[in-house]
Amino acid sequence: MPTDHAILFRNRQEAGQALGTALLSLASVHPLVLALPRGGVPVAFEVARMLGAEMDLLFVRKIGSPGREEYGFGAIVDGADPQIVLDDAYVRDAGISAETIGTIVDRQRAEIDRQRRLYAPDRQPVPVTGRVVIVVDDGIATGGTMRAALRAVRKNHPARLVLAVPVAPADSIATLRTECDRIVCLSQPQPFFAVGACYRDFPQVEDADVIRLLAQARDLHPGHMTGGAGSHSVPL
């Protein structure tokens, strides 16, 4: 349980509603909301619901440091040619071998494959080209995962790329400003301890939760999501 002084949101749903309110000016351009599973899905669903927008998934996995999995030194984004972003300085200083990185990447690719098969089998991603795209997660820590996600989306030429998160440290936000056209971050607490510390209730989002919210998103846009909400395997 996080300490009271750190709590900003009751849960991901409340955070998503607050984020949706901050993004209401984009409702008229019919944006595409891309959620980073699994934690970003409940937040993104509320944003999409409030904006009357389509929602899709952007599969991205953190590449965690050996023995310190919570510290991400890179990330991999799904696609025909997966986008991999590494913190080269950290890799060099920590002495992480190419073989170790390859093993971690293979493990994360396997988890992406599992999620894709489970969440959105036989469904095509919603195209981002020429669209206003809002990339949503439940928060940012180091920013490495989000950097990879934004770069992957940018390569597909959206009309405008927006990063939207409830909470993140100021230094991480600063490093991401060149990766997108706009950042909406509701809070940048100092000091910053962890994303989960900013929520009163921060349970793990289960596969069943993702599937349920995707079905609800499909029901909100039956004409746009033929066959159900898609998975955004970015064609890099």
Highlighted features:
236 residues; alpha/beta; Rossmann fold; six-stranded parallel β-sheet; 7 helices
Molecular structure report:
The protein has 236 residues and is an alpha/beta fold. The protein has one domain (4-59, 122-232): Rossmann fold (3-Layer(aba) Sandwich). It has helices at 12-22, 40-51, 88-94, 98-119, 144-154, 170-176, 207-220; strands at residues 32-35, 54-58, 60-65, 68-77, 83-86, 132-136, 160-167, 182-187, 231-232. The protein has a 6-stranded parallel sheet, with helices on both faces. Strands 3-4-5 form a 3-stranded antiparallel sheet. Helix 6 (170-176) links the parallel strand 7 (160-167) and strand 8. Helix 1 (12-22) packs parallel to helix 2 and helix 2 runs parallel beside helix 7. The longest helix is centred in the middle third of the chain and has 22 residues, at 98-119. It is globular, with a radius of gyration of 17 Å. The N and C termini lie far apart (40 Å).
CATH top level class name: Alpha Beta
- Secondary-structure element order, N to C: HEHEEEEHHEHEHEHE
Cα(first) to Cα(last) distance is 40 Å
Summed up, the helix count is 7
Oligomer: single chain
Morphology? globular
Q: How helix-rich are the residues, as a percent range?
A: 25-40%
Beta-strand percent range: 15-25%
The low-confidence runs, each spanning 5 or more residues with pLDDT under 50, are 1-5, 225-231
Biggest sheet record: 6 strands, parallel
The count of strands amounts to 9
Count of discrete structural domains: 1
Query: What's the CATH topology name?
Result: Rossmann fold
Overall mean pLDDT stands at: 89
Based on the coordinates given, report the CATH architecture. Answer: 3-Layer(aba) Sandwich
Structural class by sheet pairing and helices: alpha/beta
Strand order of the largest sheet: 8-7-6-1-2-9
The radius of gyration computed from the alpha-carbon positions, rounded to a whole number of angstroms, is: 17 Å
Organism: Gluconacetobacter dulcium
Keywords: Glycosyltransferase, Transferase
Protein name: Phosphoribosyltransferase
GO molecular function: glycosyltransferase activity
